[in-house]
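Moderator note: this is an archived Q&A kept for reference. The question asked for a predicted structure of one protein chain; the sequence and the answer are reproduced below.
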Amino acid sequence: MTEIPPVTWHKSSYSNGAGGNCVECARLGDEQTAVRDSKDPGGPVLGFSQRAWGDFLAAVRSRRLG
């Protein structure tokens, strides 16, 4: 993604408090989800369509990834 509007980022409940594995997500108004590394908030942001994000979450929840 090149530019995103100001959004509220939410840290994953799976992120630990010791500075590792920190992922933040933000819902974008155009039915997309933005994802970034909370340790590098000015770094790259990945954008996912609503369907792609839903498919990813379903795979993670069923433990098909990892």
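Archived answer notes: The CA atoms of residues 23 and 39 lie 8 Å apart.
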